[in-house]
Amino acid sequence: MAPKDVRGLDPVDRELVVLLQRDGRMPNSDLARRVGIAPSTCLNRVRSLQERGVIRGVHADVDLTSLGLTIEAMIAVSLRRDARASIPGFARIMTEKPYVINVFYVSGSYDYLLHVACAGTDALREVVNELSVMPQVAGTETHLIFEHRPGRAVGE
Length: 156
Prior knowledge:
Blueprint: H1 11-22, H2 28-35, H3 39-51, E1 71-79, H4 87-95, E2 100-105, E3 112-118, H5 121-132, E4 137-145
Antiparallel strand pairs: 1-3, 1-4, 2-3
Helix pairs in contact: 2-3
């Protein structure tokens, strides 16, 4: 994925992004008032941010435990050296798994970090076993997540 050209983001655009990160359902009239611009201007700016790919979507923050998913983990995955050609395919396969929240292609000792949510330790063990028998996987390392707090990074 190519990086977005953010040189055209002025302080108003950045403030709109911050406000929408905090509350993606904030009404346009409230957004406009908070940043000090007309509602029509605000609507046009938000549309432009969406069209340029700066704002990629609005998502629900779901309490996973209310869905019965009581355990979260980061699973570090190393692919076999002879399976490097399967890197894009591995990511596609993982994003389709119902237990996967996020897939990160990373540098370092591992190739991927998988953020997963499961119904308990038995379900997590099944996920790790499923990964371990995949022919392209050389190894895994599992880290339980005790707490997760999303950040709100916006470039300067």
